[in-house]
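Worked example 2:
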Amino acid sequence: MKVSVLIPAFNESAAVRNTVERVRSTMTGLGLDYETIVIDDGSSDETATQATVEGVRVLRHPANAGYGRALKTGLRHASGDWVAIVDADGSYPIDELPLLLAKIPAFDMVVGARTGERYRGSRMKWWGRQLLERMVHFVTGVKVPDVNSGMRVFRKTIALANINRIGNGFSFTTTLTLAMLLEGHFVLYVPISYLARVGSSKVQMRRDTLRVLQILVMAVVSYNPIKLFLLLVYLQVLALIPCLIADVLLAGGAHVGLISAIGSAAALLLFGMGLITDVLRRLPTA
């Protein structure tokens, strides 16, 4: 079993060499066949130079293309059957990577679920994370403790099969999680520490949150469309409740009754469309 360790890096010259050396020390101690690939995503600093050490392969993008795009480049060049990913900024405990590797090949993906105060972050980040976890739970039916952890090990073949569905930005990890769970693969979450990163974060909360929301909707449409239609029906019924109360209890008049009738018909139509879409999705392709 060979493991390809991918390290995406964008302007991480202050931390990437230490990360590479920690990977080498940890993986050598395990006695596994492995390779280390650093993907320099169009850095304007000395990231590529700092990452160029013995036994490490450095791939370079001519311009910044995104975290996920860097990992996709690494996936296409990886020679291992299994892929491990870690960030270059020093925030993930590479010495805990063996905890994840010990669970393969029984599981198709093992994720390091971050813990501690540093992972919790600000109140806004914590609430945003809670909302994302609940949405992923709705989409997949599985409770996920850390949706977008950047330290995980997974089968390369599964990731490559879904490479066009996986996001090019920081949503890479979220979409990979969705693909694994919605296709019925075995996923395990192992608690890990979360450390202080070196340098400043590249995540933009507003932009990346909107992208994740878009991806969640696309995932529901692709894998389980009836859930989306049921959600729309639920929202439609909620909107109808005031009209129904006015119509039934308060004798709201003909116009209220008409609104209730149209709304009820629309809810039934949405439900019917959901059933048809789900049936069509399950039909065998030629």
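Residues 254-282 form the longest helix (29 residues). Strands lie at 2-9, 33-40, 56-60, 82-85, 109-114, 152-155, 187-192.
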